């Protein structure tokens, strides 16, 4: 973790024809540079390597199909710790042909498998239809069928002599249509048959016991076998149209039992043959997919790298001779040697006759911000960058956030027990981080916790420390060193008697009695306060004052850090005209408040505590300049308070007008002086205030400060704009000192809330289980402890922990970072293969 962002430079890369692909590949493996687009006016379809990117898109499409088939077959794709390098351009066509050949083979096998499965479903349905319709034909009574039936055709009368119906005499032939229909369509199908055919049909149906797969979709569902009897071809045509409308699966109906038996035998044989062929097809398909799965990860990585390389090549421009590509990149100055080495290696791999080389060029553009992190500091850097990416070469708050963030969290969350549980959970994630990274969990909540494992570990460790300070462990105190309070002297000196104890429910220990109070507890708060009735008022006073002290120190530290920005950007006048007024205003008012708190703690003992004045009254009287009738806190208090108040009030107009007037003089009144001295000055604008300054040589005797060039110069100096900007900053800082100091009282409020919730949870849950002293109490204690543990984790650790986390985040963003951190920069995004997103990982295919 560095104090400020790294120094960057703008570099031109001259990539020789034939080796540009290998050079970009080497840069992608190292992740050293950020490329700039030199063809912003050219659309992506008109760029030189658009066809190569289109080929990579086609390979990604084939890989997506391949990965989906592998996922359907539930075949694991072996990953590799070190991904393969980008393939040479001559191997791209080979990979493309291999993928296309594999796709064609898989499509053909999949189509054959689908046809076999459809045929198998058809034969299975036909078999069920034949078995069930046999019961319709041979049933003794049509009423025995499960479905409703129509007993006779209306208006069809049987002849008394011949025994033939009128239909038979007219030459009509009895016909049958049988098949299967979905269960949900049966009622509508039955009504339609009745209305269209006017009752000249007999419908028998029953539900198949087994769930059958649909022929088209393959979904499992309930089906119904039906048999329709009718007279004549016209009725047949109507019935067939109705069956087609309801997507019925029709099968030929045998005319007699012998034919039915023959068809069933042939179906049985065909089903067995289809099952054998289908098993062989599935085995072959699985073998193909297993073989493809071995190389799938390598193909995905190679195609991703190829596509990224061609995207970068499209950002480059060609020289007039078309013999080399020119690229512009931002590169850390410390990595220029590695950059040259990467280009040399790429030229060697590409067999270039002329090596690629680097040319550093000057630039007035603001470089991107680069702050190197590791797995420990990356979480804290993310907290800072959630507020905003730092300006180039600006002081970074991240190194201090590593300590201050978990400390402020622990002040609100201080509990030895809860901190221990949180630390153990974070320690488990740290120890298992390698295994967890390989699993690539898609759970977003778990991924958030895992990425912040070191933050949670630090928060847990600091919570253990503050828990020891508060002497609080699951709302109970620990008597490690022995209390400094004793009740024996109260009886020895006849202050208490047995009658006093019996007649009073509450008794007060008097520290003025010799031997009652032997001295403060060695570390933290004395455990006797856990038994005291006035414990809450004592802790409130202690934590409230502690919050103010921590807040003023934290804000003062933020103001001090702004000095390093002023000095680095050669704005020495800002040290005198901005930093000093800000620091004087803050310390003369709220620093003095901290002084009074500490002074009262140190000077007034237990014997003099009744005579100790109120700090709040003295602080109010400081502003109204009253209080002569009140006992002073120390000699000469009134004079010192008036002096501090005057200094604070004077610092406000100095902060408001000092910088604008100096810049106005520097631009207007200093021209003649600069001409006489012969200095050539260049006007520039400061990024943080938008004002116009000059860059000059350092000359301590003449007292003129030079400024860093951070933006292009405007045409003219606007005094009103600078004054307005400084007025906003002054109002924000002065009012912010008051509101921000009050904002740190959340440390006290959250700490109090956490302690009270912990105490309520112990009293309402755990104490009930511990009160039962019989044998049943041991059994009853198990579910009580389980409930206590569940509520502790869900409420006190998760909900309260999240609340304390958010409040600590606000204190850093608003109260600390705005004193020196602008956060308006641009993050350095190097071209790095390991940082490229994968479409297949986002879709869950890898």
Automatic annotation (TrEMBL):
This is V-type proton ATPase subunit a. Essential component of the vacuolar proton pump (V-ATPase), a multimeric enzyme that catalyzes the translocation of protons across the membranes. Required for assembly and activity of the V-ATPase. It is a multi-pass membrane protein. GO terms for molecular function: ATPase binding; proton-transporting ATPase activity, rotational mechanism. Pfam families: V_ATPase_I. The keyword Transmembrane helix applies. One of its GO terms (biological process) is vacuolar acidification. It is found in: Membrane. Belongs to the V-ATPase 116 kDa subunit family. InterPro entries: V-ATPase_116kDa_su, V-type_ATPase_116kDa_su_euka. The chain crosses the membrane at residues 407-431, 452-470, 546-564, 576-599, 642-667, 776-799. The keyword tRNA-binding does not apply. It comes from the Eukaryota. The gene is atp6v0a2a.
């Amino acid at each position: 973790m560095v104090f400020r962002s790294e120094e960057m430079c703008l570099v031109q890369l001259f990539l020789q024809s034939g080796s540009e692909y290998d050079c970009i590949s080497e840069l992608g493996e190292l992740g050293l540079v950020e490329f700039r687009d030199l063809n912003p006016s050219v659309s992506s379809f008109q760029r030189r390597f658009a066809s190569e990117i289109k080929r990579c898109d086609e390979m990604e499409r084939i890989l997506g199909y391949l990965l989906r088939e592998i996922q359907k077959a539930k075949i694991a794709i072996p990953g590799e710790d070190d991904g393969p390098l980008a393939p040479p351009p001559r191997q791209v066509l080979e990979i493309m042909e291999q993928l296309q050949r594999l796709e064609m083979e898989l499509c053909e096998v999949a189509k054959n498998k689908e046809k076999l499965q459809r045929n198998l479903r058809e034969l299975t349905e036909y078999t069920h239809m034949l078995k069930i319709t046999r019961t319709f034909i041979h049933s003794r009574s049509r009423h025995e069928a499960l479905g409703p039936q129509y007993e006779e055709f209306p208006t069809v009368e049987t002849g008394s002599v011949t025994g033939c119906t009128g239909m038979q005499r007219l030459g009509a032939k009895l016909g049958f249509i049988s098949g299967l229909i979905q269960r949900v369509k049966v009622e509508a199908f039955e009504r339609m048959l009745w209305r269209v055919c006017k009752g000249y049909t007999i419908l028998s149906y029953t539900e198949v016991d087994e769930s059958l797969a649909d022929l088209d979709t393959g979904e499992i569902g309930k089906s119904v076998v039906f048999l329709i009897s009718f007279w004549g071809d016209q009725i047949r045509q109507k019935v067939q149209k109705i069956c087609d409308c309801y997507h019925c699966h029709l099968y030929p109906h045998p005319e007699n039992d012998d034919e039915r038996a023959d068809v069933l035998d042939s179906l049985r044989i065909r089903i067995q043959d289809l099952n054998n062929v289908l098993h062989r097809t599935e085995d072959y398909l699985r073998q193909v997919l297993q073989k493809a799965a071995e190389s799938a990860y390598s193909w995905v990585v190679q195609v991703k790298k190829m596509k990224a390389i061609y995207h970068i090549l499209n950002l480059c421009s060609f020289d007039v001779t078309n013999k080399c590509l020119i690229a512009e990149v931002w590169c850390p100055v410390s990595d220029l040697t590695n950059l040259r080495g990467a280009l040399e290696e790429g030229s060697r791999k590409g067999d270039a006759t002329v090596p690629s080389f680097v040319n550093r060029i000057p630039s007035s553009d603001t470089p991107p911000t680069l702050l190197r992190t590791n797995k420990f500091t990356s979480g804290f850097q993310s907290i800072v960058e959630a507020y905003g990416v730092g300006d180039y070469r600006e002081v970074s708050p991240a190194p201090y956030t590593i300590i201050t963030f978990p400390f402020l969290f622990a002040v609100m969350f201080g509990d030895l027990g809860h901190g221990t549980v949180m630390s153990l959970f974070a320690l488990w994630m740290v120890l298992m981080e390698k295994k967890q990274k390989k699993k690539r969990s898609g759970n977003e909540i778990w991924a958030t916790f895992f990425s912040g494992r070191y933050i949670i570990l630090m928060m847990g460790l600091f919570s253990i420390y503050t828990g020891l300070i508060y002497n609080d462990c699951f709302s109970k105190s620990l008597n490690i060193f022995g209390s400094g309070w004793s009740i024996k002297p109260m009886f020895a000196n006849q202050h208490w008697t047995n009658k006093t104890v019996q007649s009073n429910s509450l008794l007060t220990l008097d520290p003025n009695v010799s031997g009652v109070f032997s001295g403060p507890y060695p570390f933290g708060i004395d455990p006797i306060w856990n038994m005291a009735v006035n414990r809450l008022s004592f802790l409130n006073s202690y934590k409230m004052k502690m919050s103010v002290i921590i807040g003023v120190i934290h804000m003062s530290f933020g103001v001090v850090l702004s000095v390093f920005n002023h000095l680095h950007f050669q704005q020495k006048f800002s040290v005198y005209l901005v930093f000093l007024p800000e620091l004087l205003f803050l310390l003369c008012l709220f620093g003095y408040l901290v002084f009074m708190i500490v002074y009262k703690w140190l000077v007034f003992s237990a014997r003099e505590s009744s005579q100790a004045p109120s700090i709040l009254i003295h602080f109010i009287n400081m502003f109204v300049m009253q209080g002569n009738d009140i006992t002073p806190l120390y000699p000469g208090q009134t004079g010192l308070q008036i002096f501090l108040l005057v200094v604070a009030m004077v610092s406000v107009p100095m902060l408001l007008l000092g910088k604008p007037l100096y810049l106005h003089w520097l631009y207007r009144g200093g021209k003649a002086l600069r001409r006489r001295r012969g200095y050539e000055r260049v006007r520039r604008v400061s990024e943080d205030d938008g004002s116009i300054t000059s860059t000059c040589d350092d000359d301590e005797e003449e007292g003129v400060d030079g400024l860093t060039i951070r933006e292009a110069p405007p045409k003219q100096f606007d005094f009103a704009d600078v004054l307005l900007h400084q007025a906003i900053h002054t109002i924000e800082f002065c009012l912010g000192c008051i509101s921000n100091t009050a904002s740190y009282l959340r440390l006290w409020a959250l700490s109090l809330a956490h302690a009270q919730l912990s105490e309520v949870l112990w009293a309402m849950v755990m104490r009930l289980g511990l009160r039962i002293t019989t044998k049943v109490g041991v059994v009853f204690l198990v579910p009580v402890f389980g409930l206590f543990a569940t509520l502790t984790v869900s409420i006190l650790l998760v909900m309260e922990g999240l609340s304390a986390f958010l409040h600590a985040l606000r204190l850093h963003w608003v109260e600390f970072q705005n004193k020196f951190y602008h956060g308006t920069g641009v993050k350095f995004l190097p071209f790095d293969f390991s940082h490229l997103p994968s479409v297949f990982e986002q879709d869950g295919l890898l």
